[in-house]
Amino acid sequence: MNSMSVKSKISLLVITPLIIISALAVEKIYSANEKRAQLINIDVLLKYFHVMSPLIDSLQQELLYSNFYIESSNKEISVGSEIEKKLTESRRDVDTAIANFDSYIQQKQNLGVLSSLEVMRTTLKAINQQLLKLEISRSVIDERKRNATNPTGDGKVWPLAELTNLINALVNSGFSVSEGTNGNGSLKRLSDAFYIILKARNTNMLQLTQLNQASYGIVNGSRFATIISLYNQEKQLINDFENLSSKSALNVFEEVLVSKKQFKDYMGILESIRKRGSSQIGMALDIDVDTINFLQQSLNSSYADVIDVLLEQIEREKSEQLANSESVLLITFLGTLLLISCLTAFSFLITKSIIRPLSSIVGLLRTLSQTKDLTVKSVIVGKNELGELSHTVNVLIESFSSTLSIIRDGIKLLENNSKNVATSAFDSTHLIEQQKAGTYSISVAIEQMTATIEDIATVTKAAFESAESAKALTLEKESDLQSCLHAMTNLSNELAQTQTAVLQLEVQTTGIEQVTKIINQIAEQTNLLALNAAIEAARAGENGRGFAVVADEIRELSSRTQQSTVKIQNNINELSSGMQSTVKRVSALEWEGKNTQDTIRSFVASFDSIIQSFGEVSSVNSRIACSLQEQSGAVKDIAGRIYAINDDAEDLSKKSASVIQAVDEIDKNAEMLKERISHFIFR
C-alpha cells in the first residue's frame, strides 16, 4: 500500500463503493430476472392446465358413454344411434385432446420444465402408460365387455377402470402443477383451487358412472360404499374450494353451480341415498336415470364454467406478474445505471478536488528540494485539511529560512571570534619565544656565576698558604666581586622582567579563556539551532529529508567545535598552571638573587677591612668556603629552576600551537557550513 500513489488510493476508495453498489444492483437484477424466469416456468406449468383440462373433459365423456354402451348391452336395451354417435364423438374429442397434449409435452422447453418436478415426471410416466392401453380398452368396449383377456397375455383388461385410472392420473398431474407454483402465493392459491375444482368435477363424473351402474344392476356393499365415499369427497372438495378460491371465482362458483336448483337436486338425491343407507344393498337404486343424466350434464357444464373462470384468472394473474417482473427488471437496471453514472461523476469531481491541490504541494516541495529556494510559497488556501497542509508547508519553509539566517549570522560571529583567538594565540607564542630567550640568558649567567664561586673557593684555600698571596688575590678578586655584583644585579632584573612577562601571559591566557567560552556558547547555540532544524525536518517527513541532512551536518560541526573549545580550555588551564608555577619559581630566584646581591655588596664593603685585617682572613676562610659551597648549591638550584621555566615555556609554546591549530579547524568547519548554507536562497 505504501508504494501506491495518493491518486490511486483515492480512486480505489471511490471505486470500492461503486463496485459494491454494482454488485448489489447485479444481485437485484439477478433476483428480478430469476423471478421472471420462475414466472416463465410457472407459465409453462399453467399452460399445462389448458391442454390437460380438455383431455380430462373428453375422457370423462368417453367414460360416461362407454359405460352407457356396455350397460345397454347387459340389459338388452337398444343402443341406438344416439349413444354410439356420442361415444364416437367423445373418442374423436379425446384423440384431438391427446394430440394437443402430446404436442405440448414434446416441446423442449415444456418438457424441461415439467421434468424438473420429480412428482410430475412420475405422473407423466403413469399417464403415458395409460395412454398406451387406451386402444386396447376401446376395443374391449366396442365388444360391449366389461373385461377381456389382455392381448399381451398380462392378465385381463378392464376398460372402464383403465379410463378411470387415466383420468385420475391426469387429475393428479394438476396437483404436480400446483406444487410447481410454490413460492408464488397468489398463483399457488389459484392453482390449488383449480386442482380442487378439477378433482371435484372428476369425482362428480365418477359418481354419475357409479349411479348409472347401480340403477341397472344390484347394488353390492362395495359400490354403495363407493357412492357414499364419492359423495363425501365432492362435498369436501367443494368446501376446500370455497376456502381457497378468490372472491371473484367464488362468486362465479356460487352463481353457476352451488346456487342452481340442479346442483341442490343432485346433492339431495345423493343425501337421500346416504340416509337410506344399507337397506338399498342387494337391489337396484330407486332413482331416475334420465334425471340423473340431466342433472349431471348441467353440473358438468357448471363445473366447466368455473374451470374456465379459474383459467382466465390464472392467465390474468400470471400475465400481470410477468409484466410487473419485467417492469421491475427494467426499472432496476435503469436506476442502477443512473446511480452508477451519478456516483462516477461525483467521485470524479471529488478526486479532482483532492488530487489537484496535492499535486501542487508536491510540485512545490519538489522544486524546493531541487532549487533550495526558500522564498517560494504555496498558494493553496481553504478551511479544509488541504488548506491546513498548505499553511503548514509555508510555515515550515519560513521556519527553515529563519533558522538558516540565524545560523549564517552565528557563522559570521564565529569567524570573527576565531580570528581574535588566533591573533591572541599567535601573540602568546611570540611572548613565549621571548621568555625562552630570556631564560636561556639567565641560565648562561648562572653557569658563569657557578664557575666564579668555584674560583673563589679555590682562592680561599690558597689564602691559608700565603697571606700575601691571599691579599694580592683578594685585591685581584675585588674587581671580580664587582663583576659578580653586576651580574647578580642583571640577573635580578632579568628575573623581574621574566615575572612581569609571565604575569602578562597569564592575563592574555585569561582573555583566551573568555574567547573560548564565547566560542563554546556559539557552538551550543548552533547545536540548538541544528536540533530545531532536525525537528522541523522530521515533521516534514519525506520532503524534509534534505533539511535533515543539513541539520545533522550543522550539529556535527557544532559538536566538533565544542570538542575543540574544550581542548583549548584544557590547554589554557595547563598553561595557566605552568605560568603560576613559573611565577613562583621566578619569585624564589629573585629573592635568592637579592640575597646574593646583598652578600656581594657586603663583600665589597668589607674588602677594605679584609685588606686591613688580613690577619683575620685565615680564621674566616673556612667559613667563607662553607658559605661558598652553600651558595654554589643555591646557584645550582636556581639553574635547575630556570631550566624548568624553560621547559614550561616550551610546553606553553606547543599548547599555543594547538590553540592555533584548533582555531584553524574551527575556521574550516565554519567555511564548510557557510558553503552548505549558501546553496539555499532565503532572506
What is the fold's blueprint, element by element?
Elements: H1 6-74, H2 80-106, H3 108-115, H4 118-132, H5 134-142, E1 148-149, E2 156-157, H6 159-180, H7 185-216, H8 221-244, H9 247-258, H10 261-276, H11 289-371, H12 385-463, H13 467-540, H14 545-612, H15 617-678
Antiparallel strand pairs: 1-2
Helix pairs in contact: 1-2, 1-6, 1-7, 1-11, 4-6, 5-6, 6-7, 7-8, 7-11, 9-11, 10-11, 11-12, 12-13, 12-15, 13-14, 14-15
Report, as a whole number of angstroms, the end-to-end distance.
Answer: 40 Å
Succession of helices and strands: HHHHHEEHHHHHHHHHH
Structure class: mainly alpha
Portion of residues in beta strands equals under 5%
Tell me how many strands there are. Answer: 2
Radius of gyration: 70 Å
Shape: rod-shaped
Instruction: Please tally the helical runs, counting DSSP H or I stretches of 4 or more residues.
Output: 15
Structurally, how many domains make up the residues?
Answer: 2
> Which sequence of strands runs across the widest sheet?
1-2
Largest sheet: 2 strands, antiparallel
Global mean pLDDT? 78
Q: Helical amount among residues, as a percent range?
A: over 70%
Low-pLDDT parts are none
